[in-house]
């Protein structure tokens, strides 16, 4: 006899926002600063762990992120160079243990909740070489 599997999920309303600022230090050098949020819209989510977990447990890893960014844009005569970094951080979230093995060889503590905290750095290097600028300006002036 087949066991029916029902994946249920519930979502909640979230409001994400962000802002950014650019500072012109010189004609060729500017810097930028940004902040944004990425709140999780799930109040209960369905995933593959639902097949092995107790049905009354919520096993959602509810991550709400805050993103920070900063960098510089350096305009040279032949190109622009962008150097920057972004940092993402989540608050601590709880994750219920999805498996309850009945083997005596496996020693499991009474704590059925694991806490996660996530952070990530990303580094950005970009170069813009405007090799079509003269061709585009020539075509626009002829029209």
Fold and architecture overview:
The structure is a single chain. By secondary structure, this protein is mainly β. Helices cover 7% and strands 43% of the residues. It is built from one helix and nine strands, in the order βββββββββα. The strands form three sheets. It has a five-stranded antiparallel beta sheet, with no helix packed on it. The longest helix has 10 residues, at 133-142. The mean pLDDT is 78.
Unreliable stretches covering 5 or more consecutive residues: none
Rg estimate, integer Å: 25 Å
By DSSP (H or I, 4+ residues per run), the number of helices equals: 1
Strand content: 35-45%
Question: Nutshell version of this structure?
Answer:
The protein has 143 residues and is mostly beta strands.
Protein topology:
Elements: E1 10-11, E2 18-24, E3 29-38, E4 42-44, E5 65-75, E6 80-90, E7 93-96, E8 113-116, E9 119-128, H1 133-142
Antiparallel strand pairs: 1-4, 2-3, 3-5, 5-6, 6-9, 7-8
Q: Keywords, please?
A:
9 strands; two-stranded antiparallel ribbon; elongated; 5-stranded antiparallel β-sheet; mainly beta; 1 helix; 43% strand; 143 residues; single chain
